[in-house]
Amino acid sequence: MDGDKQPTVCLGMPLYNQTEFLVQALESLLAQSYRNFRLVIVDDSTSVQPGKIVRQLAAEDERIHYVHNASRKGLVDNWRACFLHAGEADYFAWVSDHDIWHPEWLGKLVHTLNTSPNAVLAYPVFIRITTANDRINKPPRHFSTTGLSDFKRVLGVSWDAQAFGKMVYGLFRASALRRAGIFRRILFPDVVLLFEISLQGDIVQVDEELWSLRRMKKFSIARQKMSLFTRKPWYIYLPWPLVNTLVLGWHTVITPYKKDPGHRYLGFVATFMYLYRNLGKLGEGSWIGSYREWTRGKKPWMKKLIFRLKQAGQPR
Known about the structure:
This protein is of the alpha/beta class and 316 residues long. It has helices at 22-30, 49-58, 75-84, 105-115, 150-159, 164-167, 174-179, 189-197, 221-228, 240-254, 261-278, 291-296, 300-313, and strands spanning 9-15, 37-43, 64-68, 91-94, 100-101, 119-129, 135-136, 171-173, 202-214. The protein has 13 helices and nine strands. The longest helix has 18 residues, at 261-278.
């Protein structure tokens, strides 16, 4: 696809009860200089307020397609629903209900995919902002696999990539996203998705600050377990590094979309590196904690133990 052609683009917004920044987020998306896109909003809210806001804007802009779930789906299934409602799009991106996008965000990403035939994902440099729209002074993160061999690309994603939860908000080739399972029903599905998608082609970063990421709630595994699923699958109670390794290996080594030995080998490399990278997190999210949590003294019982040991060591 050449750089001047306008592909079919769909943006998917999973919505859940957030209204404070919703109008600002929608207005920045609708103000994109690249206007040839469809915005699918799938509402998983228990409140009627988000839907009212979206319907008001949808009455003024026909690019908005609003869907309200008949019953709660949970985060993973709602993200999947956004893609499934996208139809036959060439490119697809998930967008949040609280961030801000530069007017050139979508145009730059579309141009990158148009002119980079081996790229399966394009994402920009992002900045972090507060709830008051003030910039948080943190250095930007840079990662791209452009120019790497297939093996080095997979190894780079497995070892060097960090901001998976940010890259997943980039612009995907929809066909590659579909082959990678869209969004699997596991903990940390964004990480597994990026590992899988790296087997298909390059992850390209546009070296411009085009996305303002709003800092919301602090991450926790307990909250993710609560929000990802309405009905928790049985394996959610097993160590997630092992579950995700098995899922990744099954889809990239045992039953990959491409059956040739070279692709299976890359899948094995990705699977092995995923497990190696996350071995120290075994037990994370449970009461006993992981090795990483032990070394950092993060669990409540560890903090109490450390406090008592310090007290015991003080002279009386």
